[in-house]
Specification:
Blueprint lengths: L1 H27 L4 E8 L9 E9 L5 E7 L3 E12 L2 E7 L2 E3 L4 E3 L6 E7 L8 E8 L3 E9 L26 E3 L2
Length: 178
């Protein structure tokens, strides 16, 4: 009889430990990413490529990583960085962008940005573009980006953002890393 009682007690203890572990993992995987101040440049003339920018805030205690971006009607959407190299502004495709725990990364002209490539329809000022960003831990998060020639007035530069100068429609920029 004692043996059966001990076996039942161990089974109940194992079940409680399993339930606790699953609950802890579920809490750890909860989205802790916030998106704000999303905007995109309009396509100009016959242009079929543009850039979008967003502020990403990780309110969690674990780092996350932006691994992909998407928007309807685009042939591809890529995460990029831009910067001066040997006196020439260059853009490079990134496989991902780290979002440190408790920090904010601001995408802005001249720094991190999302390239929207081979757009089916022109993107016009005054409209919005849905951006879906996919993170390793937080999964997919969607935000509507307002389309304008410059950032929304509420945009603030965060510590890990890019510079604020304009890159126009990226004409004359060297592209690398593809």
């Amino acid at each position: 009889m004692e043996h059966r009682y001990a076996t039942k007690w161990l089974a109940v203890a194992a079940a409680l430990i399993t339930v606790g572990a699953v609950a802890a993992l579920a809490r750890a995987a909860e989205p802790e990413i916030g998106l704000s101040d999303a905007w995109a440049r309009p396509t100009l003339g016959a242009g079929r490529t543009t850039a979008a920018y967003v502020t990403i805030t990780n309110v969690g205690t674990n780092a996350d990583r932006l691994t992909a971006a998407d928007t309807p009607g685009a042939g591809s959407v890529e995460i990029h960085t831009a910067g001066m190299e040997e006196g020439v502004m260059r853009m490079r495709r990134l496989e991902g962008l780290d979002i440190p725990a408790g920090e904010t990364v601001t995408m802005a002209p001249g720094g991190y940005h999302i390239m929207i490539i081979d757009i089916e329809e022109p993107i016009k000022v005054g409209t919005t573009v849905p951006l879906t960003l996919t993170f390793e831990t937080s999964g997919s998060v969607t935000i509507d980006a307002s389309v304008s020639m410059s950032p929304p007035s509420s945009t603030e530069t965060a510590p890990m953002g890019g510079r604020e100068e304009s890159m126009g429609d990226h004409q004359g920029m060297m592209h690398g890393g593809h």
